[in-house]
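Lecture 7 notes: from sequence to structure.
We start with the chain below.
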Amino acid sequence: MNTVNVYIKGQEDKELISFLRYFPSRIKNIGMDAVFDRQIVYDYKDGRNHLEVAKCVAKFLVKKFGRKICNVVFSCIPASSPERNEMRNRHFSELVCKFSGAIDGFSHVSVIGERTAVHGTKIKKEERAKRINEQNNIEIDADFFKNKEVCIWDDVVTTGASFNAYVSQLEQAGAHVTNGIFLAKTSYKYVLK
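Predicted structure tokens for the same chain:
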């Protein structure tokens, strides 16, 4: 998987990358490469292809941090419910940390209740950010994250609102977020290769 640079306003001091381009299902006129990438995203969300994705993420982390990786916390942006978060992120986070040597932050973040998932919904950027902020049901162990270097993972980045909200929460607890890694970056315009 090749990496794609990601730009999120307000996060210029962080290295942000994604491995794939994700075309929402409403985008119909795409090639087989995009269909294949979309299926990787769906499989990840359903908890199926964690091993291969974890190997790619771990390889990136080791290349980025080298021997310092043992001091970096790997933290997944929680899914919209405790059940989805468990299915999507627990085993994946364990694998990434096992392969890379990073510190697993999964057990230091919890999801309380459920919020409406914002991926795949046709809403304006401002409304998406408002929903994320209003429905923040993420609790973090502030003592654990304080003064730690943190690398954040999320499956799909569209506007960056979820990433910004999670970064803000971690940094308010005293963490230093250095990176954002995403399985896929949402795209709407497909260009034939």
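Points to note: The chain has one domain: 4-23+32-186. The chain is about 40% helix and 20% strand.
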